[in-house]
Amino acid sequence: MTKDNSLVFVALGGAGEIGMNMYLYGYGPQSNRRWIMVDVGVTFPDMDGSPGVDLIAADPEFIEAQADKLDGIFITHAHEDHVGAIGRLWPSLKAPIYARAFTAEIARLKMQDAGEDPDKIITVDVWPAQVEAGPFKVGFMPVSHSVPETSGLVIDTPKGRVIHTGDWKADPTPQVGEPYDEALLAEISKDGVLALVCDSTNVFSPNPGRSEADLVEPITQLMKDATGMVVATTFASNVARLRTLAIAAKDANRTIVVLGRAMHRMIATARKVGLLTDFPDTLDARDAGDVPAENLFILASGSQGERRAASAQLARSGHSGLSLRAGDTFLFSSKTIPGNEVAVGYIQNQLARQGVTIIDDEGGKYHVSGHANRPDLERMHEIVKPKGLIPMHGEYRHLAEHARLAEARQIPSVVADNGAVVELTAEGPKIVEHIETGRRYIEGNQTFGALDGIVRDRLRMAMRGLVVANIVFDENGNLLGDAWIEVKGLFTDIDGVDDALQRKLEDDVTKTLEKAKRRVREDDEQVEKTVKARINTMAQRLIGKKPEIIVMINRVED
Amino acid sequence: MTKDNSLVFVALGGAGEIGMNMYLYGYGPQSNRRWIMVDVGVTFPDMDGSPGVDLIAADPEFIEAQADKLDGIFITHAHEDHVGAIGRLWPSLKAPIYARAFTAEIARLKMQDAGEDPDKIITVDVWPAQVEAGPFKVGFMPVSHSVPETSGLVIDTPKGRVIHTGDWKADPTPQVGEPYDEALLAEISKDGVLALVCDSTNVFSPNPGRSEADLVEPITQLMKDATGMVVATTFASNVARLRTLAIAAKDANRTIVVLGRAMHRMIATARKVGLLTDFPDTLDARDAGDVPAENLFILASGSQGERRAASAQLARSGHSGLSLRAGDTFLFSSKTIPGNEVAVGYIQNQLARQGVTIIDDEGGKYHVSGHANRPDLERMHEIVKPKGLIPMHGEYRHLAEHARLAEARQIPSVVADNGAVVELTAEGPKIVEHIETGRRYIEGNQTFGALDGIVRDRLRMAMRGLVVANIVFDENGNLLGDAWIEVKGLFTDIDGVDDALQRKLEDDVTKTLEKAKRRVREDDEQVEKTVKARINTMAQRLIGKKPEIIVMINRVED
Hints:
2 copies of one chain form a homodimer. Chain A has about 550 residues and is an alpha/beta fold. Chain A has 16 helices and 28 strands. In chain A, strand 13, helix 5 (about 180-190) and strand 14 form a beta-alpha-beta unit. In chain A, helix 14 (about 500-515) runs antiparallel to helix 16.
């Protein structure tokens, strides 16, 4: 362990996965560093790995344990995977939270939702403004992305300047918010950059990224050509897209109706901070009944097939009195995130059933990505000329490819996934340590570790079904009545007899216990072991499956 | 109800979904038809909808109830979604099963796996051979697909000829098995075709399909250029691809090792029926340790990311003593089926971690689809000139688009999803009736209906976690001891106290029951209702979540 001051970077989440971003920068001797945190995001649960969980965040335990050394939390932009856990995790972190106006508003809503004080969020100005946080000075450099006011961070440290790009794309005409400004980037980089910590999402996309502005003409044409109602869905946070869609609809003489809480919230927030001065007027859905279909445009949340969102409801049975008819058009102005294909396909089939024309991405005609493609990344490497590059925001294969890209340009790089502590030096980045990382599950009003065994038990019950055996012994260790079996999540008919499984298990367990030696019957552990073994054997024989088993032993005393 | 003889088609599975194909053709008056069945496939369970289930088939109840009127079962090809349920469903169907040699061998293995007699499968010759089954005469017309000997069925009926394509593509050079033969199709169609029942999978693919032969050169080149070991995965049943990969490997001086039971089974079956006379010799994996990496080729099962298959094992920790190193190449000669992206991505990340070069589909360079694209479908419509077209093998949106395609050519069509009884007439197809259809879950040694509530209970336990309350009353309806609470799949620490949830629920339920009126305590239903309500209220307060609850009430009598 060295006593020298060093500058380190460590991902608690977001490196080796796409989602739940949470990064730390530390400065000082290894035993006593001051820290800042960048982003406090979530990822979403699924039935395969985390049934019943509400949200998943990176486990902040490493920094919680030294929260007094955390000098600030910086939020780069308002996407859930960067800001979604701030409300729930802040109580154990307590540091001041900094963000630009739009992001700050969204972060305040997250604090409110969690019952925390929204005034803990401090709104900061764009670069060249800087925030001092311990040994760090942090500025918000505008980049473009798919949500307004997305910022890269310029982090000045005693060891030099670091650029943390956050999520970014090279869009000179993003429609809402500041453009990506290459001249500014060059200016910020001109005195040397110690390390570039950079988005890797689209490193496998070979062509230069396209601008949000490229969508205006095709979307406008679509609105004009469509004969019936037009519905469009996209990510609610893509305010520029909402604006493009709404203005195109207005130009095509369509009245605009917005459906879905997330979209209303984003539009209201963007207006509140002065970002959406030219968003057309909208009509309440309940007043839209009289508008002819060909003069109507619906902006609906739920582009990923979320079952309760407006798009799914519209496709299923209508929403707020509005419903679709043959000849209407449904535009997916969005990309389907891997894992959501089935849910999106389900909506599309429901639309097809109603004779609705479905228009999806069609090779980028109606959607552009929010992330920098491979040539854009190369261009940034060229402009910033960092002394080292650390790929972030990617699965392992993205990080590895991004590191190769940097090294091809003689920029030293390391592939550092969650928990790798990287020292940033003038000779390049170097992994010096590994700390434990993991996932924190957020559920109801609790949070717990992914490895606590809770979700494992849920998955077992889901895969195996459940048998509960209830046994009552008297004070002499003799059975009081028969064993009682309850079954949940198992097929219990055998040879056409209802609940035959329970009856047969009850008979068998009762007989087994009656025949058992007294020293077995008097020992709860032995009883449990014996009962489980019998149930497993019998269930395998009767239904071909070993269930999850709970044994409850009552001993009645006089 | 008409007493006239009519010819009908009905899908029990496979129309309105991709998977679990099961089709019926019926002839006779509505009250007394004779039937044949085409295909008895499965679809695969998932955690979202069917956790713990082994396989899913279409519910055959409609035909089971009149199994004495089923004159034959015809299997078009050896894919799981066409043959996978034959062994498990045959006992309630009992009709003779017909298939060509390769398919018949696979079907026999399915019968054996289910403990049924493999000799029930009858091998039939290719067209112009025909099988008589009640009022039907059925011939197997060779088409091409991604498994050997795939056949369309030529079904002659008293009302005219029907062509049931099965899965098909227009491949004149499929590498293994007969080519798609347009002249034969024209010959079969020349006297008029009453109805064409046709694969719709790729109706949205705008370009003509490509041949299996197009892959030979790129794959051969890849094998030669690669410096380390090469691993390739594809669908085990794609025997032509296995052959292409193996021959290319041999040409590049590589010894071939086959990993995975499914692949061994397919290769052995193809050889047994004389289809793979030129497959190169293979080496047992256990003897491959001495072969230099650059002279080794591994053909591995598990292209869809299946956790227990050879590809996943290789990526994780090696398989049969073989493991991957930096510089080795892993080729996905396959398409990722929607829903499997995350599982495949998981393998790719593990490979990236080991420095393995990953090569995937790359715009069709190393994989071609087994289904006819839009122009191929149009060409078939043109050659067959049917009096009516019924789209099958597609989700609703595929069926609807395929019907539009036919109608654009003045071929009458209907979109008939599962359960629609379609009368086939010279004036075109007509939906005349709807029957109930559904899903049959196959699990362990049982089968049960998807709507039996079993899986619903599993999903509830997985989403909510479980609380079991065990209560013992004496003969007077007084509590004997405290209520006993067991919890599974819930976070039970409150304010840092282990199992606090159980203790608090026990206290609360005990007090509630002690205070309850005697007439409540003496009534099991009232006790259950009271206990559930208390647990829900308390759990919501303590952990913010309402669990699934089982209440077990014991009444001890003297």
